[in-house]
Automatic annotation (TrEMBL):
It is found in: Cell outer membrane. GO terms for cellular component: cell outer membrane. InterPro entries: Beta-barrel_TonB (IPR000531), Beta-barrel_TonB_sf (IPR036942), Plug_dom (IPR012910), Plug_dom_sf (IPR037066), TonB-dep_rcpt-like (IPR039426). Its main location: membrane. Residues 37-65 have a biased composition (Basic and acidic residues). Coiled coil: none annotated. Residues 29-78 are annotated as: Disordered. This is TonB-dependent Receptor Plug Domain. Keywords: Cell outer membrane, Membrane, Receptor, Signal, TonB box, Transmembrane, Transmembrane beta strand, Transport. Residues 69-78 have a biased composition (Polar residues). SUPFAM superfamilies: Porins (SSF56935). It is a multi-pass membrane protein. It holds the Pfam family Plug. It comes from Solilutibacter silvestris.
């Protein structure tokens, strides 16, 4: 052996030691020696994660060869042309992650995605996603032991089908392998951004229990708790079988608004001056105490609102419109701050050796998730004077359904308003009343998800060729239960029959309704349960697959062996959401009976080969043929090259092409009939704010209160939304490439750097209702009584300049149009997306002699471009999004792990770079350092230049006094950094990557029997 060959072996041994032996951070480059000969790390390597795989290979008489994520070919050198990042179980513990979602939050290549506890009322409620490169869950393939899982039952936004990563068995995870390169040629069409392969233990003997609990120093009700037990028996070497099972229990405690409402960033309260005041904690009636409510009417001449507290009110306040009887808004709402989640995941794995060359294997996974959130305050009866609730429904076509809380007529037995108030509208009055009959825990939301996967297969070898085949069946049943919406029939039974005022069109309830105002009773509670029923949305997904492959040597070249793999995959996929008949007929407010019903068979053939051109140059080529219904067979190629330029320097690069057929939600039968939250209508937003800003100049408290209530109220409204499937969609196609190197200038240091790009065209997207070209049709409400009352209040203020202190302009601001009522759009092929950047990974290992070992790791993703081509008319007009809101240029992690005797101390930093507040250069015209605004509202004065960079640190100490006991203590957010104000977040803080929990303390204990 030459001197250079010896040096190369030592250097690549260092790489694999850094990746799989050391707790050196979440991104470790796998570098395995081609010859695992006599080197000083051999003993340590045998103790790492690959021990089980090598046992597997021993059974097939193919020593030293293992399978790496991103390739079907077994090899001795796992440093493929594609960059693979490996996160061991120990590294997961060191970063303080308790769930797979939290692991991904600490990977620079991953971007924020849907989180289960922040997903309520989104359409895919109660589930979490993976999102590599910011290309979305539809571009990120999630595997369990190299094979697919079934999609979650409710697609995100009713479009994006994704794997719920909360359903993956956390207790059985041995490591994660993240391929940050397109792998459509190997795994299938949806691996454009990369692959996350969660790998469980191959075999386990004995019994192990562990428990973890996390508590916050700032949010008293926050808590995450886990308990797991893993047990197994049988030795593959001696007994020729192994069976083990793992059970993981997880609970996240609910966080009520009472523990959250006063802990938002300070600027939130400056921008929302009435936020805390509106809870009426100091003036309102206590929860559970009877409140008779208030009456109101409008002056027919001026349009001004007049109001008065109902007789018997003990909590009277005086506003510009008159007296009002107020109640405390109960702070038990858990929708915003955090829902309670219970998860139970069971995993069983079995391996049996048959003869000398065959192994049977099987695994089963079952997950039961139950997420609940209390909806808070009981429903209030508040006569509608502004925009009614509006929504589309399946069986009412393009007609917008509407619901008004009715008025009380002049002869209503509960109309006890004063004669003066009654006289304003011919005896008709509006009512504000708190209906407490069903209690404080009736309203809210619950999500359940029951998912499974069972798999059985055989693997073995025939001579030098390895083969494997398996059949898997996976599925999920997801149900969303919501108790917030009105059932029109049930509501009319409680308050009808209705009449219509012929002159004004006002809806008026029965003079003697079945619901009895003024009392809390079981009869009233039964009526309210029918008026506000628990509405359920059920979804089923199924995925059955049969796959097979064979891999082995073709022939030898002077530089080495040419190996190849060939295989097939056949799958059946179905997605069914039947909808609800009452909702489909428009009888349940805000629920349109969205439904989907689709199924398809898909087939694939693939081949791959690795060719050593020279001792230093290796080429890896793959091709996959996918056949989807209604589309021609797609050919997805991939080629990779690696070149050992120097003993210390490895060069590598890949090119591949991706393909994604429209999923069953996008092009099947059905559609989205629902609502769209946060719709921004620039016309109404600017007109309402002009009125509000003038009112805020007044010296009169009533004017100021109204101005605070109006400010930004029309800048993000909920409107009826219809999104139609599109059976004319073209498949997405993509070109993906990487180019990089791995260098090892010293035994203690390994550095890798890779440039990556993804160019995706014909991207399938939901309509962007902020863009006029995406709206097929739009309707508006007329100007309402509430609008006219606002204008009357403004006119009164201006007419009384002596008391208000405001000199008004000659022409007062007014309303030219009503608010948007509905929008209709359709899924479409948007055009093109281009993203690229650099991944950098540096790992070092130091021996401290008697003081143990120190490992230091740095990983970073540096984004270069994120551009979108929406069409020929716009081109690349929106420019490069990098550096704008939601697209930081850099995300990075830094970790240091010190092992000394029985202790391991880990310090983990997570960094996200700064951005502008504007979404793009067009938005920047209105939201920039000079305006000191984002989304048209003020940001914190010290943050006018943009979203600040953000970092947090976790510190952990793990103690293992013997092979049985493990004790760990972690402080997350060590420096107690609190989030900044973010107007773009519905919570008011940068909750995608910051935490409002403050410093969190975590304790972990485990015992192996």
């Amino acid at each position: 052996m030459s001197r250079s060959d010896k040096k190369r072996i030592a250097l690549t041994s260092l790489s694999i030691a850094l990746a799989t032996v050391l707790a050196a951070g979440p991104l470790a480059a796998q570098e395995v020696p081609q010859d695992q000969g006599k080197n000083d790390m051999q003993d340590q390597i045998k103790k790492d994660d690959k021990k089980d795989e090598k046992k597997d290979e021993k059974k097939t008489n193919d020593l030293g060869r293992i399978e790496v994520t991103g390739s079907n070919i077994r090899r001795t050198d796992t440093e493929t042309a594609s960059p693979v990042q490996i996160i061991s179980k120990k590294e997961i513990e060191n970063m303080g992650a308790r769930t797979l979602l939290q692991v991904l939050d600490n990977l620079p290549a991953a971007r924020p995605a849907q989180q289960d506890f922040k997903s309520l009322f989104t359409g895919s409620d109660g589930a979490s996603q993976a999102n590599l490169r910011g290309l979305g869950a539809q571009g990120t393939l999630v595997l369990l032991n190299g094979r697919r899982l079934s999609y979650y039952g409710a697609p995100a936004g009713f479009q994006t089908q994704f794997v719920n990563i909360d359903a993956i068995p956390a207790a059985a995870i041995e490591r994660m392998e993240v391929l940050t390169d397109g792998a459509s040629a190997v795994y299938g069409t949806d691996a454009v951004a990369g692959v996350i392969n969660v790998i469980t233990k191959r075999e386990y003997r004995g019994l192990e229990v562990s428990a973890t609990t996390d508590k916050s120093s700032r949010i008293g009700t926050y808590g995450e708790h886990q308990a797991s037990i893993t047990g197994g028996f049988g030795d593959l070497d001696k007994d020729r079988y192994n069976v083990y099972a793992s059970l993981n229990l997880y609970r996240r405690d609910a966080i009520p608004l009472s523990d959250w409402y006063d802990k938002k960033p300070k600027q939130y309260y400056i921008n929302n001056l009435n936020y805390i005041k509106n809870f009426r904690l100091d003036t309102g009636s206590a929860p559970g105490a009877f409140n008779p409510g208030s009456y109101f009417a409008f002056d027919p001449v001026t349009g001004k609102r007049k109001q008065e507290a109902a007789p018997g009110c003990n909590n009277v306040i005086t506003e510009a419109a008159g007296t009002r009887c107020v109640w405390q808004t109960w702070l038990n709402n858990e929708i915003d701050a955090g829902a309670k989640s219970d998860r139970a995941t069971a995993y069983v794995s079995a391996h049996f050796l048959i003869g000398e060359n065959t192994e049977a294997f099987a695994e089963a996974t079952y997950t039961d998730i139950d997420l609940r959130a209390n909806g808070g305050t009981p429903r209030a009866y508040g006569t509608t004077t502004g925009n009614p609730t509006s929504w589309f429904s399946r069986n009412t076509g393009n007609n917008v359904n509407q619901f008004f809380y009715p008025y009380l007529g002049p002869n209503n037995e509960y109309n006890k308003a004063s004669p003066q108030l009654k006289a304003l509208m011919g005896g008709v009055v509006g009512l504000q009343y708190l209906m407490q009959d069903v209690g404080d825990h009736y309203y809210g939301q619950r999500n359940t998800d029951k998912s499974y996967r069972v798999l059985g297969g055989l693997r073995g070898n025939i001579g030098d060729w390895n083969w494997e085949t398996a059949f898997a069946s996976a599925g999920s049943h997801s149900v969303t239960y919501q108790t917030v919406n009105v059932d029109l029939d049930g509501f009319e039974k409680a308050f009808g029959p209705y009449t219509i005022d012929p002159g004004t069109g006002r809806v008026i309830i029965s003079d003697h309704p079945a619901y009895k105002f003024g009392e809390n009773s079981a009869a009233n509670a039964a009526l309210l349960r029918a008026a506000y029923p628990t509405f359920d949305i059920q979804s089923w997904t199924r995925l059955s697959t049969l796959d097979g492959k064979i891999e082995g040597p073709l022939f030898k070249l002077p530089a080495g062996e040419v190996r190849a793999a060939f295989g097939f995959n056949a799958s059946y996929e179905s997605f069914y959401t039947p909808g609800n008949t009452d909702a489909a007929n428009g009888r349940i407010t805000q629920q349109g009976g969205s439904w989907f019903d689709g199924k398809r068979n898909t087939y694939a053939l693939f081949a791959e080969t690795v060719v050593p051109i020279t001792k230093k140059l290796e080429v890896d080529a793959a091709v996959r043929l996918d056949k989807y219904p209604n589309f021609s067979t797609n050919i997805a190629p991939k080629i990779g090259v690696k070149y050992q330029a120097l003993p210390e320097l490895l060069l590598r690069g890949t090119y591949s092409e991706g393909f994604r057929a429209p999923n069953l939600a996008e092009s099947g039968t059905g559609g989205v009939y629902a609502q769209l939250g946060g719709y921004r209508d620039e016309t109404r937003c600017s007109e309402t704010n002009a009125i509000a800003n003038l009112l805020l100049k007044s010296n009169r408290s009533g004017d100021v209160d109204l101005g605070n209530t109006m400010l930004n109220s029309d800048c993000g409204r909920t409107v009826a939304r219809m999104t139609q499937p599109n059976q004319q969609l073209k498949p997405e196609k993509a070109k993906i490439g990487t180019l990089g190197f791995v260098i090892e200038p010293a035994k203690w240091l390994s550095i890798s750097a890779d440039y990556w790009f993804v160019y995706r065209r014909n991207e399938i997207v939901a309509p962007d209702f902020t863009k006029p070209e995406d709206i097929i049709a739009r309707t508006r409400f007329p100007i309402t009584d509430a609008d006219r009352a606002n204008l009357a209040q403004l006119a009164d203020m201006c007419a009384n300049a002596a008391t208000s202190g405001v000199t008004c302009p000659g022409t007062l601001p007014t309303y030219s149009v009503g608010n948007v009522a509905s929008v209709i759009g359709q899924y479409k092929n948007r055009g093109r997306t281009l993203v690229d950047g650099f991944d950098i990974d540096a790992r070092s290992r130091f021996s401290l002699g008697d003081y143990g070992k120190l490992n230091i790791g740095l990983a970073a993703t540096i984004a270069r471009r994120n551009q979108a081509w929406y069409g020929e008319d716009t081109g690349w007009a929106y420019g490069n999004y990098i550096g704008y809101y939601g697209n930081p240029r850099m995300r990075a992690t830094l970790n240091a792990d010190w092992t000394y005797r029985q202790f391991t101390t880990s310090l983990f930093f997570n960094y996200v770079g700064k951005t502008k507040w504007a979404w793009d250069h067009f938005d920047e015209a209105d939201n920039n350092p000079d305006t000191c605004t984002a989304s048209g509202v003020a940001v914190s004065p010290g943050q006018c230049k943009g979203v600040p960079a953000w970092w947090t640190a976790n510190l952990s100490l793990n103690w293992q006094p013997n092979k049985h006991v493990h004790v760990g203590f972690t402080v997350k957010n060590l420096f107690n950094r609190l989030p900044f104000y973010d107007p773009n977040s519905f919570l008011g803080d940068a909750s995608d990557y910051t935490s409002n929990y403050g410093r969190v303390f975590s304790v972990n204990v485990g015992y192996k029997f």
